[in-house]
Amino acid sequence: MENIIKDIDIISPDEAQACDFKTTEEENTGKSKKLYIESYGCQMNFSDSEIVASIMKENGFDTTSDFEQADVIFLNTCSIREKAEQTVRNRLNQFNTVKKNKPELTIGVLGCMAERLKEKLLEEEKIVDVVVGPDAYRDLPNLVASAEEGNKGVNTFLSREETYADISPVRLNSNGVTAFISIMRGCDNMCSFCVVPFTRGRERSRDPYSIVNEAKELFEKGYKEVTLLGQNVDSYKWSPEENNKARLNKKEDEVSTLVNFAKLLEMVALVDPALRIRFSTSHPKDITDEVLYTMKKYDNICKYIHLPVQSGNSRVLELMNRTYDRDWYLDRVRAIREILGEECGISSDMIAGFCTETEEEHQDTLTLMDIVKYDFSYMFYYSERPGTLAAKKYTDDIPLEVKKRRLAEIIEKQNSLSLERNKLDIGKIQEILIEGTSKRSEAQLKGRNSANKVVIIDNDGQLKKGDYVQVKIYDCSPATLFGEVVS
Ligand code: SAH
Ligand code: SF4
Ligand code: F3S
C-alpha cells in the first residue's frame, strides 16, 4: 500500500508549467572533444538533439553528461510558453561562471528560442557564441569552428525541404527499448496561441522508406517500441512525384500511390509484430477513420491517442483557430470508442484562461473532460507569445490568478478522471513492455501497457527490459497501475 500512496502525482498549477530537461549521456569513442546538450520542450526537440549529436559526432565530438567536462555546451530550447524561455535564460546565467573559468568554452542556443529571437539572443545573452535554428543543424560544425576562432555566428534559415532523413540519430538517454522517429517537421496550422509555425517553419513529410529503414535498424538493435513524431501526424503526406524526385534509384515496386499517415502506420507496423508503434500528436480536425481502422488491424500499433482539445467551448476554439468545434471533437472521440473500444487510451492538452474566456466557457472544458474521460492531460494556463495571431488580434485579458484557478480546477478534474479510468483496469490482464527498473525501487520494474499507462511489477530477477509480459492489474493510483505477472 505504501508505494501506492507515494505514487499519487497531484500536479500543482506551477508544476504543470514547469519545463523538464534532459541531458546527454557519457559516450566515449575516443574523439578529441566533448559535447554536452541540454534539451527542453517537446519530444521533437529531444529527437532533434539526437540528430545534432550525430552531426557533431561526425565532426570529432563525443557526448558527456558533465557540462564541466564539455568543450561545447548546447541548450536545445523551447519557446512554447514564457516560462520555458525564462528557464533557459536562468540556465544561461548559471553557465556564466563556467565560462569565466574556461573562456575557450563554446555555448550554443539551438531550437525554437534560437529561431524566434535570432541575432537578438547574441545581444541579450553575452555568453552565447552560436544561435542555430531547427533547420540549420548541418551548419553546426562550421559555426562551432568559427566560434572557436572568436567569431560568433547565427543561422536561423528555415527550410521547405530539410527532414534530416539521411542522418542516423545518436540515441541519447536511451533505455535501449523505446525510441523516437521524426516523420515530419514544421506545422502549417496557425493555431492563434502557438509559436511553433514561426519557430519550426512549413510542414514537410519525410521519405517513408527512410522512416521504415530507421524502424528496422532500431528493431535489429533490440529496440521494441518506436514513437512516430510530428506536430500533426495526421497530415503526413508523401507523393510519388516527391518520391521520384528524392529517389533516383527508385525500384519499380516502390510507392506508386500517395502515402498518407494510415499507410505509413501500416508500413511501420509490418516491420515486425514484436515492434510496438506509437505516434504523437494527432489533430482532431485531421484524424481519419482510416487511421483508426489501421490501428485496429495491427496488434502492435498501441491503442492510445494523444488528441489535444485545448478548450471545450466552440467560441474559444474558433478564437484559437483550431478549425473544429466541440461537436466535431466529440464526434471524433465517438469514432475512437466505436472502432477501438473503451480500452483505447485518450489524452489531451488543455489551455486555461485563453483571451476573453468566460467562466461558463471554462465550465465547458470541464464538462467535455467529463464526457471524454481522458486518461491523462498536459495542462497549462495561457501564455501570450509575441508575434502569434492571438498576440496581434486579442487582448490577454484574463488575470493571472483567474487563469491559475481555472487551471487548478482542470487539474483536479483530470486527477479524478485518471483515477476513475485506471480503476477500470483493475482485474484485467494486459501485455506490458518492460522499460527498466522503477524510479522508486530497484526491486520493481516499470513497463507500459498498450494505452500508454505505466505499470509497476515486482522484479523477480528473471525479467529484463525489452521483455513483453502478461500482467494482471491489482491496484492503481491516478498516475500508475500495479500488476502481477501471470505468464
Ligand atoms: N501540435 C500539437 C501541440 C504542440 S504544443 C497540437 O496541436 O496539439 C503543445 C501544447 O502546448 C499545446 O497543445 C498547447 O496545449 C500548449 N500551448 C501551446 N501554446 C501555448 C501558449 N501560448 N500558452 C499555453 N499553452 C500553450
Ligand atoms: Fe501549434 Fe496548432 Fe501547430 Fe499544434 S497544430 S504545433 S498547436 S500551430
Ligand atoms: Fe517547444 Fe519548439 Fe517543441 S516551441 S514545444 S520545442 S516545437
UniProtKB/TrEMBL annotation:
Pfam families: Radical_SAM, TRAM, UPF0004. Its main location: cytoplasm. Catalyzes the methylthiolation of N6-(dimethylallyl)adenosine (i(6)A), leading to the formation of 2-methylthio-N6-(dimethylallyl)adenosine (ms(2)i(6)A) at position 37 in tRNAs that read codons beginning with uridine. CDD domains: Radical_SAM (cd01335). The keyword S-adenosyl-L-methionine applies. PROSITE patterns: MTTASE_N, MTTASE_RADICAL, RADICAL_SAM, TRAM. Residues 173-420 form the Radical SAM core domain. Belongs to the methylthiotransferase family. MiaB subfamily. It is an enzyme of class 2 (transferase). The keyword 4Fe-4S applies. Residues 33-149 form the MTTase N-terminal domain. HAMAP family: tRNA_metthiotr_MiaB. One of its GO terms (cellular component) is cytosol. This is tRNA-2-methylthio-N(6)-dimethylallyladenosine synthase. The gene is miaB_1. Its cofactor is [4Fe-4S] cluster. It is found in: Cytoplasm. Monomer. It comes from Cecembia lonarensis (strain CCUG 58316 / KCTC 22772 / LW9).
